[in-house]
Amino acid sequence: MTTVGKALPHESAAGHVSGAAPYIEDLPRRADELWVEFVGSPCANGTIESIDAAAAKAMPGVVAVLTHEDVPGHNKWGGVVVDEPFFPDDHVSYIGQPIVAIAAVDRETALRARAAVVIKVREEKPVLSVDDGIAAQDFLGGVQRIARGDFAAAWENAPHRHETTLLIGGQEQFYLENQSALAIPEEDGSIVIHASTQNPTEIQAVVAEGLGLPLNKVVCICRRMGGGFGGKETQAAIPTFMVALVAMKTGRSARVVYTKDDDMMVTGKRHEYRVNVKAAFEDNGTLLGVKIDAFSNGGAFTDLSFAVMERTLFHADNAYYIPHFEATGRVCRTNLPPNTAFRGFGGPQGVVAIEHTIQEIAQILGLDPYEVRRRNCYGIGERDETPYGQRITHNTLPEVLDTLRETSAYEARTRQIATYNKTSRRHLKGIAMTPVKFGISFTATFLNQGNALVNVYTDGTVQVSTGGTEMGQGLNTKVRQIVADEFGIPIESVRVMTTSTEKNHNTPPTAASAGTDLNGLAAQNACAKILAGMRAYAAGVFTGGETGLDPDPSLIRFRDGRVFDERRPGNFLLFGQFAKRCHLNRVNIGARGFYATPKLHFDRSTGRGHPFNYYTTGAAVAEVTIDRFTGDLVVDRVDMLMDIGRMINPGIDRGQVIGGFVQGMGWVTTEQLVYSPKGNLLSHSPTTYKIPGIDDVPRTFNVAYLDNDRNAHNVHASKAVGEPPLLLGISVWAAVKDALAGAAPGRLSGLNLPATGEEILRCLTELAAPEKSGTESKGRTLSPAK
């Protein structure tokens, strides 16, 4: 009755497709319920002069109008640095920043009241872009750095040197369920919150601190989210606090559900970056040294920007051994909503920077970029240590690259494309293979822990509660499979319960691709405790007397819904029968499990350590066609090969691989955040912000998996799959860069990210113009100083 390894349906699949799965907005209305809206800042930077809410307060049906003056506890919050106000008291820092919360008997009344509030702000010039932040020298925190070797010496003595700059755009998470929360006041001043959040423990803490309550008076519940992608790791805090404050002040339930426009305009996104790179290399493309200086757009407050930048530096080497390496990062303070977590969490920006560099090095040397990538790939038993000192064990990167090169017919297609580009006057084709090496663990070591509660009932059914949250990624389904196999029972007998801080306390966010790792292993640990007691009892039940067998708990088996001693498998009890006998004989059949990822450490003062439990690796080959006259892009074909270990659920993992890739492809091609000079987000709806549609996905899409059962670090030898595939979307961007190389051989295109039609057309136009003397678009290749 093994379920691990089977492509079983998502536990909420039927509810998802039928519309029966409830989200926050779907929860039944309570008789006393209020609807909450907010009034945001009219400008991106300025001083509040006055707030006139008299007309709103006088409206029939308006129950409360709240500002910073109504916050009973701390008015600032932050997951790392406590610097963001729930409601600003004197200064506003981005357009739409919530200043006033309005509670009314229904949504229509709340919206009318919102329109009646007048806020006057003395406007100041905003800082909006990374370049603006660098010019202003206004940074959040200090410089982060990871280095090894002597880059300066490598640069000085290298046969070839190259300097390049890449501008990397941000990305909207675009979850289908917007930010939403429901707060219910209870007796003795307690509050229960239903929130669409990846981080119930943080919501519990933030609300408690803001309301001046102890943690045990706040319970946060999350049944499911309609998507998260990192955008609900911290960003749920303000809407959740608003309804909690209303509930406390009025004694009535309160609900908020952002519109898509409001959500996009006031919540943080993937960080925009400017990355300056210097690379020293040999005639054959072997990297001697790389220096990366990364600057991100952190927005108005810290949020998770330090951790995002740290992961950028951890992944700036990607799949390549670089003997002399230096990477620094700074976070610019700007007047945008504080940017935050997004699937990949800074890793994609680091990876695309080095892939951009390698693509240009290959073009400068007249080499196939694959050759340069393969030559610099981390080795097995040698050249296998990262710049931060962690050795890459069980390295499958060489095998992945070599295998994909053959299965994708990379060489033959490369030759065909070269011929095509020489003859086609209308179109250009490009092809690129890019790898990924993604570290699995939170880089904040203390977050690498999970707990689970497992209860076995006397009919043989099981309830499991973990601190993990379900956002469509299939965590609960995988946990069900793990627990079902531990007890040898059908998956239908296992139910994963709604996540609640009441049952699972002090938990990390469901993020960093570690949800199944931490919660699955915690659940497995709880099962092991229950099974130990069951086996000890069973050893006496199935032995002695006429059996002639000595009790031996190690020989008790739980298989196919039965419990038996393996020496006499025909003498068994059904699991439900046995569970009832355990209860009647006072054997504990419930337990709390705990797991903490071992051997993790990192010293930020030296930039050295072992921050990751293991790496998920893979590669993708993308082939594209661009229109020489319009910049229109078609992704013709993608071949992916992923090493995700032994899959717990191949169906769910396939969905994560394909979905992650397409989301990454959107980031590098169509998804562009556009702001006005005053800081208004202009692309704040599906009509102006272009996520990939069905016509954008590859015409041919091949996905394969490396056979690898050696990841003993993790539950059932599986590997995390949530984030790594997204980074393979970079292959599409690299293929566009390759196509542009065909437009003007010998010249670098200066392609930035995303490669929208407009950006591609800009590059084509520049490449068609006569080259300016002594310059090369976006890149400089220098001869050695000697």
Protein architecture, described:
The chain has about 775 residues and is an alpha+beta fold. Helix content is about 30%, strand content about 25%. The protein contains 20 helices and 32 strands. The strands form eight sheets. The protein has an eight-stranded mixed sheet with strand order 3-7-1-14-11-12-13-22, sandwiched between helices. The protein has a six-stranded mixed sheet with strand order 9-17-16-15-10-32, with helices on both faces. It is globular, with a radius of gyration of 28 Å. The chain starts with 12 loop residues before the first helix and ends with a strand. The model is unreliable at about 775-780 (pLDDT under 50).
Helix and strand content put the structural class at alpha+beta
Radius of gyration: 28 Å
Give the strand content.
25-35%
Shape: globular
Oligomer: single chain
Give a topology summary.
Elements: H1 13-18, E1 34-40, E2 46-52, H2 54-58, E3 62-66, E4 76-77, E5 84-85, E6 91-92, E7 98-104, H3 107-116, E8 118-123, H4 130-136, E9 139-148, H5 151-157, E10 160-168, E11 180-185, E12 191-195, H6 200-211, E13 218-222, H7 237-250, E14 254-257, H8 260-266, E15 273-281, E16 287-299, H9 305-314, E17 324-333, H10 347-365, H11 369-376, H12 397-407, H13 410-423, E18 427-440, E19 449-456, E20 462-466, H14 475-487, E21 494-496, E22 499-500, H15 515-541, E23 556-559, E24 562-565, E25 572-574, H16 575-584, E26 590-596, E27 601-603, E28 608-610, E29 614-627, E30 633-643, H17 650-668, E31 700-705, H18 724-727, H19 730-741, H20 757-768, E32 779-782
Parallel strand pairs: 1-14, 12-13, 16-17, 20-21, 30-31
Antiparallel strand pairs: 1-7, 2-6, 2-8, 3-7, 4-5, 9-17, 10-15, 10-32, 11-12, 11-14, 13-22, 15-16, 18-29, 19-20, 19-26, 23-24, 24-25, 27-28, 29-30
